[in-house]
Amino acid sequence: MSKRILIVDDDNTVREYLSTVLAENGYKTICAEDGKEGLFKAIEHKPDLIVLDVMMPNKSGIGTFKALKKDSRVKDIPVIMLTSIQQVIDDGKNTTSDNLTFEELKGPLLGKMEKLVEYFRDGGVARPERFVDKPIEPDEFLAVVESVFLDAA
Question: Which domain covers residue 67, as residue numbers?
Answer without folding.
Answer: 4-142
